[in-house]
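quick one, 76 residues, struct below
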Amino acid sequence: MDIATGIGELVVTAAEVVGDSTTTTTTNGDSHILAIDISPQMLAIAKKRSMFLGCKGLAFGNGQLSQQRGSIDAEL
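---
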């Protein structure tokens, strides 16, 4: 989980390090790294960067962690 991901530097680096291995296993067996930021503009940049770099298994959440709690539980 990357809280306050900004432009996604940490989450992109983590995705490169993790590769295809499992960081967090969801109920359907997919692995992912969750990136959260309060700024929709920053998230948009992070998503574009991750797609450009071919990162897989990333999920992005807009808002504060307290607002994401229910969706995090549902995804994990």
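Strands lie at 2-3, 33-37, 58-62.
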